[in-house]
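User: Fold this, then the next.

Assistant: Folding the first:
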Amino acid sequence: SLPVFVDACTTGLQELEQVASLSVFPNPASDWLRLVLELEEGSNLQIDLYSMDGRLVREVHRGWLGRGTHHWTVEVADLAAGIHICQIRGAQGIQSKTLVLLRGGE
């Protein structure tokens, strides 16, 4: 099933924001993204990148992450230019960040 994105994806947002803080940079990006996730408590999480039409374009993480700071460098040079969504999904809800991918000359 395709995810449904509602402005800032408010489903369970307050609960997840209490235990998780996600930073995505650079934004806009062209070749790679750096994701930094700070967790107040350990949790099973799914972190993905989606295109604006809801297609999963990159799986970043699946599974348990302990309390603390976690880092990923994600290659995005092969993804289409435009607006994408980085989404964290866990038992506490969903948190999303909007990001922009640029290509040469943009």
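Now the next one, as you asked:
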Amino acid sequence: NTKAEVAKKPMMLITTNTGLYRTFNAGSSWDFIPLPLKQQAVETLGLAIAPANDNVIYASAGSTVYHSSDGGATWQTQDTATTGLVNIILIHPTLPQIAYTGIFLQ
């Protein structure tokens, strides 16, 4: 599949303790999308796809938030000012570069 073909298909993501899995065929097959985790087995808690651009994905593992602008092919770590577990991510409806996080304090 070319990037253009993949971008036109509906995408579904699930989180696991090792990263993300993505499907474009309603779950018939899944592609593993690794996150650049600091530890091997960190529970992935938060996941959000931007309403305005479904290539923009935010995911969290522990207190770290990851951002992808290419549908999960590459990831950048986002700075957060928290030591709690980021367990919810909300993305601005029209500005995908703005994300809000909720935390669980231990």
